[in-house]
Amino acid sequence: MLAGRMNSLPSSGIRRVFDLAAALKDPIDLSMGQPNFDVPEPIKQAAISAIRDGYNGYTVTQGIPELRERISRSLAQEFDWQPSVLVTSGVSGGLTLALMATINPGDEVIVPDPYFVSYPHLVELCGGKAVTVSLYDSFRLDPQRIANALTDRTKAIMVNSPGNPTGTVHAAEDIEAVSRLARDRGLLVISDEIYNRLCYDGPASSPVQFAPEQTLLLRGFGKTYGMTGWRMGFAAGPTDIIAAMAKLQQYTFVCAPHMAQRGCLAAFDTDMTDQIDAYRRKRDLAVAELANHFEFVAPSGGFFVFAKVPKRYESGERFMEAALAKNVLLIPGHAFSRRDTHFRISYAVDNERLRRGCSILRDLAG
Ligand SMILES: Cc1ncc(COP(=O)(O)O)c(C=O)c1O
Asked: How is domain 41-267 classified at the architecture level of CATH?
């Protein structure tokens, strides 16, 4: 009964870790891609009030005007940019609609590798070809490597800074060079900036600064405000693409959750400095705990470390299994890459668990 497209769609490498972990009692879970702080009280209250006040029906597909207005205002302040805006069901919703709206069968999409788990699969579900470009071992967004991968079938370039799984914040000159390339070749840049507020060594650059007309910006609320389950994000960019995404959203997601949209209005007035400072300290802790035992590029954003598997394990998968046997959950690199030479841990856990988890990983490294 299944469609042919399901044959080529593997289940996520992350899901397998969760399935294996189900048998463990109280594991040290360094696999989670979500913050360990709770949604700030004023945002919770705004969503609770919305439910009580009867904001429980559909909204217009584009999102409630008040929220779109706040998003537009913040983008105008940050970039002096007036794009069209669509509120989406998480950044995943934005990615799905963006690729459905722009990718024809046979089109190629440049996907820097390592990448967020869904990118190649979503491209391929649209009939496109994900052309991965290795960024190993520096994880630098090397414009020359990207340029070398372009063909006359290339339609779009994916950019993700800060990145999952590496935590890399790409250098402004590399973002600029890749944006220029896109402009010169008439390509779309799909810039996934879900971690844009979680930057610890200075802000991340955006393709919007260098090629605003070529950029489709995707951002989210889930990681910044600890509300991944609320499924809130937005897309901003060229009017024709946003209109096409809105049309598709009518037939698919319909709208982002109404009470969550109202809650997110309060997010714009909520100061997250304390949480971000705490995450900077967690980053420092994770780096200090793993340094001298693992090879990795110290992350500047997000909440992950992507480190090389120690020599005596053949692959990320083997290292994941060894860690699992010691009650530690991590994600093997193949979930985010054509290669399986690395592993990802999340430091979005309490410091005590992070220390214990890293100590076990150090023992495994020998
Ligand atoms: C880079 C990146 N993009 C998109 C997503 C999906 O975000 P959302 O939960 O808003 O759909 C994630 C979640 O882990 C991510 O890391």
From this structure: 3-Layer(aba) Sandwich (3.40)
Q: Assess whether the C-beta atom of 194 lies below 6 angstroms from ligand 1.
A: yes
Examine the pLDDT at 343 and tell me if it is beyond 90: yes
- Collect all residues with Cβ–Cβ distance below 8 Å to 212 and sequence separation of at least 6: 79, 81, 83
Distance 91 CA to ligand 1 centre (A): 6
Q: Which of 276, 191, 285 lies closest to 225, judged by CA? A: 276
β-pairing, 328-329 vs 28-29, is parallel
**Residues of each domain in the chain carrying CATH 3.40.640.10:** 41-267
Reading the block at residue 54, the tokens are 């009867």
Nearest to 208 by CA among 199, 200, 216: 216
- Residues 165-184 have pLDDT tens digits of 999 999 999 999 999 999 99
Distances (CA, A) of 22 to 25, 27, 324: 8, 9, 11
Q: In the chain, which residues fall in CATH 3.90.1150.10?
A: 4-39+272-365
User: Is 175's C-beta closer than 6 angstroms to any atom of ligand 1?
Assistant: no
d(Cα 42, Cα 266) in Å, to the nearest integer? Answer: 7
- For residue 293, count other CB atoms closer than 10 A to its CB: 16
Give pLDDT tens digits for 219-265: 999 999 999 999 999 999 999 999 999 999 999 999 999 999 999 99
User: How many angstroms is it from 39 CA to the middle of ligand 1?
Assistant: 17
Name the band, by pLDDT with cuts 50, 70 and 90, for residue 363: very high
pTM (global) more than 0.90: yes
Centroid of ligand 1 to alpha carbon of 218 (angstroms): 10
- β-pair partners for 343: 307, 332
Q: Is the beta carbon of 92 within 6 A of some atom in ligand 1?
A: yes
| Ligand 1 atom closest to residue 228's alpha carbon, by position in its atom list | 9
Q: What is the pLDDT of residue 193?
A: 98
Residue 354 in tokens: 């992070």
Amino acid identity, residue 286? A
CATH assignment, 4-39+272-365: 3.90.1150.10
| Candidate from 12, 18, 88, 164 with most ligand 1 atoms within 8 A of CB, to mutate | 164
> 13 by DSSP, 3-state: which?
helix
C-alpha to C-alpha distance for 6 and 2, rounded to whole angstroms: 7
